Amino acid sequence: MAVLSHYLHNNEVKVTKKRKEEIIFSIREFLSRKQFRQGINDGELSDDEVWKVAEDATQYNLFSDFFDVPFPAPENPKFTFIDLFAGIGGFRIALQNLGGKCVYSSEFDAKAQESYLANYGEMPFGDITKESTKSYIPKKFDVLCGGFPCQAFSLAGRRLGFNDETRGTLFFEIEAILRKHQPKAFFLENVKGLAIHDKGRTLKTILEHLDDAGYDVVPPQILNAMDYGVPQHRERIYIIGFRKDLGINVKDFHYPEPITPGDKRPKFKDVMEENEVSVKYYLSTVYVETLKRHKARHEAAGHGFGYKIIDLDGVANAIVVGGMGRECNLIIDKRLTNFTPITNIKGEVNRDGIRKMTPREWARLQGFPDKFRIVVADASAYKQFGNSVAIPAIQATAEKELQMLGLI
């Protein structure tokens, strides 16, 4: 699916004999799964005939699933980019909004791949540490984008950094791709904890490697998503660099100014579900009491941990993966009319209106338009939106970068 979908969206690019054979094989696999509803038996088709199907893909309804999507690439793109550690495509939406075309995507998580395919018509390639995966990256593209895994540098957890053999070292995959393909620029995102990890030595190492790879790096900056159009307190570090031979003075780069100062800042109620939501999002009385006891224990110990109820006229805390990401973003919504549980709960549904935010509300907190298709179960959706980038902050910053490059 990755081979086929990438080719269908980039079939103007010449392919090698080996790649052509892979595409033909992929189409035969696809046709057999679709049962070729138009009545043609793919077993009767020669390789040349199958290739003709591929070349004229848009003339066939066979591949409509790849093109009938909420977020297609622009017809006349101004620049190209690749989407690494793509998640559910926050970077992709931001850069497509600015006129860019994604020519390669990679994401390891199967559920995230499912969401990506449903929204962009493209199945991301998998494990970026494999040379076979990297071999599909086009030789030339303008910008490398990547929200590389942040758990290794988070303020929570053990913060192993580059000692984390599976996550921390994935930065060096980005470095290797930059060295080989030499795009004009890159845009990386990570948790703000990266700035202070190992007393700043981790970030210093990253910047040194980027410099050695041939890039002038803008001094990284921590931006807060709530300053760029979403009601979520979410601080992330942005790292931007330009290829040295372009002669761009990084001192001339300025991160975007906050666009929602003062009273104009969005409030949570601006992204709240318009109608009554399912009772499944409302907490049970037993769960509420458990949260209260848990918070009381931590307060007695002088800690600030525990559930939080968000003011609807305020902003949400950072949405993050795990139960506490939801428990730190509870709201009171008294519109519920049917208190009959639809899941197994202890006790009964609370009558105070305390509920979790819905996946759609989390999507809006990250700037995803409502046409974004949520095609996975709630547990996976929370994980995907919690791991995503905040689209408006990414787009505002990318716009500055692309203007420096003269691409927009």
Which descriptors would you attach to this protein?
alpha/beta; 408 residues; single chain; Rossmann fold; 7-stranded mixed sheet
Describe the structure.
The protein has 408 residues and is an alpha/beta fold. The chain has 3 domains: 2-66, no CATH class; 69-258 and 388-405, Vaccinia Virus protein VP39 (Rossmann fold, 3-Layer(aba) Sandwich); 274-357, no CATH class. Helix content is 34%, strand content 11%. Helix 2 (17-34) packs across helix 3 and helix 5 packs across helix 14 (391-405). The protein is globular, with a radius of gyration of 23 Å. The two termini are 32 Å apart. The model has no long low-confidence stretch (mean pLDDT 90).
